[in-house]
Queue: 2 jobs
Job 1
Amino acid sequence: MKTAWIALAVSLALGACAHRDSYVLLPDQSGQAPGSLNIKPAEGGGQPVKLDQAYQTATSTMGGGFDASRTDAEDVKRRYGAALDAMPPPVVRFTLYFLEGSDELTPKSKADLTVVLGEIKGRPVPDIVVIGHTDRVGLIPDNDRLALRRAEAFRKKLLEQGIPADAIQTAGRGEREPLINTPDEIPEPRNRRVEILVR
Amino acid sequence: MNRALRFLLTNFLLWKTAMFGTGRQRAVIVGLAKSACWLIGTCAATAFAAEPGANLWQAQIKVSRGVVNIARDGQRYPGIVGARLKEKDVIETGGNGSVGVMFNDNSTLSLGPDAEVVLQRYAYDSTTYMGAFDAYIKKGTVSVQAGNIAKQSPEAMRMMTPKAEVSGTAKNYVVSVGE
């Protein structure tokens, strides 16, 4: 009789362990506040839990609710290392600048090009978003065309380097999204640019 | 590649014709061969251009280790690096498997061993950052990195499990089901 009770207790404990769910808020990798996470039980099983500090954890209970507790970097690595190690490399952003009214890169940006290409070629399956911009000199339709021409000029360079066409998206934003705000018709070299997203 | 294929095909047919045809036959066959090759080339190019279209696919596998599969429309495909994913796909990992997926809004999901995740819903507008991202984590550990969709509206990205629904302003977190 006693052994039966022990067996029951053990199987209950094992059952609980086997079906335990955990939710862990991790620190923001860019060093900002971690934000917050709301965990709502699926079937009216208890109160929602809010996590708002790094390494705070919610663990499911037998009653259908969640217990809040705390863990640390080491424990997270031990329990979830395989998933964390499989995270895709972070997205990298670059900006290259152009000569006035032209789709030719500035001498400085021509030199930076090797860094950009190095980052792209270092990835097994890169996909790239290129967005062209202009300063506020000239008419809006002309600047739309110039912005797109800048993005296309960069795309051509990538194609020449053997990057497949389906891995590159281009867009032109004209003078709508200046890096530096200026009144209309003011030349601003820092706005004559392409923004490149490599992921 | 298309151009090379077309070149080879044309030359093969020309060579055949040169061996067996007479003058008039030859001209007809050469003409036919050329238009056939042009057709093949055009169709191939169209099919190729239509396939990996930016809006057709919502994500791509960037990291893949051990056994990783994608279940789509009742079929199972190997989840290799470079494979594209879309709404309704199911990602599965084996006992030694792990996989890292990058979405169009720069969100990422990475799965540890013995995991199963259904991409229930994914929509994203790259101009407004508006979208909807629902994933159902049936089992296993998933490391989540929120992207532009959640940045724009935190409620628009939800991780579902059998026991809970998770959302918020968090950038990085882990969900582990049946640990």
Note: Chain A touches chain B through 51 residues (CB under 8 Å).
Job 2
Amino acid sequence: MSEDNKVKVAIVGSGNIGTDLMYKLLEEPGHMELEMVAGIEPESEGLKRARDEGIEATAEGIQPVLDDPEIKIVFEATSAKAHVENAPKYKEAGKIAVDLTPAAQGPYLVPTANLTEYLDENNVNLMTCGAQATVPMAYAVSRVTPVRYAEMVSTVASTSAGPGTRQNIDEFTFTTARGLEEIGGAQEGKAIIILNPADPPLIMRNTVYVIPEEDEVDEDEIADSVEEVVSEVQKAVPGYQLKNGPTFDERDTPWGKKPVIMMFLEVEGAGHFLPKYSGNLDIMTAAARRVGEGFARHLLGIEEVVA
Amino acid sequence: MTEAKTEAKQSVRITDTSLRDGSHAMSHQFAAEQVRDVARALDEAGVPVIECNHGDGLAGSSIQYGFSKVPEMDLISEAVEVCEQARIAALLLPGVGTVEQLKEAVERGIGVLRIATHCTEADISQEHFQMAKEMGLEAVGFLMMAHMRGPDALVEQAKLMESYGADCVYIVDSAGAMLPKDAKERVEAMKEGLECQVGFHAHDNLGVGVGNSLAAVEAGVDQLDGSLRGLGAGAGNAPTELLAAVLDKMGVETGLDVFKLMDAAEYTIAPIMPFEPMPDRDSIAIGYAGVYSTFLLHAKHAAQRYDIDVREIMMELGRREAVAGQEDWVIDVALDVAKEKGAV
């Protein structure tokens, strides 16, 4: 493939997420070429690893990224606060921002469900790891039958929840619940997160409960839709697995006795840079790579369906 | 006199949690009238703090934990309305409830917020403590599943809560898995390491709920939890009326009216209990396996549905080191066990 068929991209943020994303982009660049990794600590592990891979690494923050007109897509792997500051600058410099922080400066995006809707935007947000893991399941049901309510419970190894998540855990519940509603198609969404310190650390687990509008649902049709979405997600996140379900039960709910569809997921990371149990972080970087690829193809005028 | 000749009488503050921990045993089906009756009886018996909201804390109403029959905010209002002297407390688990519900609960009139995290995860509670203190509440920390860590680790976590503004931090034996010496050594270490008050919350799964509370008193605990007739998750809590009677006989000050509490347990709570929580086969299994007491009814439901033994579910959950709030794992484990047996 010639250089002309690539869009140049940069990663801003040389921490765990940025570094893991770097390895994903190097392993499977698609129509992207990683031009630069930007951080603020010259001696950081992430920048050192970028240099080792022959990637330009700058410790001067975002300026070198802004100054390079060739870079069309920027992956923001810093913090929500930093992204709020950076977002207008990317826009002014004519760059598309794929935001991995909870800053929510652009529309929410979950690749399996709504990637193609926002390819003309210049800033998209990947919400939370929990949303990336569970919104596809709510979506799988809601595209078959209307959904009254969707609830997700995410259990994450303590060691893979960083200080950002810990200091603002409410953000996770708000944002993930909104994702279940806006993208998952539920009239009402709810999210719960639990940190588990078991040693060895447990692989990220997610449970999704869905209450359909109708009292009678076609279980086979739902099961087929779920299976299809799972294999779609697996293309980007091979460690995404439906361990149990969809299983059907009946519960007393605020809307009377209703069927409840339950799905039990496990998300194992690819282990590019982060440990395999950190499926929560891996699903974010995998989603970011996939979204970046979607934008790159769109910019290049390749209109085939994004895989 | 420059020096006290006799040691001051020990006093312990009792918080009754029939209307919160009891919500588990009631499958979250408390009616408004029941809450009014229980709160009024507790208030008249001199209970200073009454906890009232969904068993899994603010916003606990869910498929995961069970939906509330009556919205918890309305139940809080009912309790606030009938109490003359008692303050109403609400529990909040960061990750389940948020500051949004906290604000509404304050509008409804709570005076105390109890903030619960797994005993190794205190640092997720900072924003909630700060908000509670900003809003003028008494803020109490809850270190759940405290049998899973030793005294030093617990003190370290409690200090985080103290630094966020906690007025008291509880050792919470959510699994009812502690023995009296476990309770004693943990409370002792906390008393030594903290400036703020220390509390202890018992479950009776191994039949030592009151015994553990007394061990905590020996270690100098400042606050204890109870519930009428022990109405709470698993085998229930230390019964409030029993704590009142026993502590009185020990000469420990509680400010409680023993006879009125006995009446409240007998005439107000007992008639509305769907079953009497006690260390029966399944509850002993919880304490023995060291899993969260609220798994009880969820595991019974799953065991029945997939035709397996509740104890198999509990032991496997213990092996997986499930923590508070992981009710979804109950079904997941039940499905795994059933699959192994070829039942599904």
Note: The beta strands of chain B are 13-19, 49-52, 87-92, 112-118, 138-144, 168-172, 197-201, 223-226.
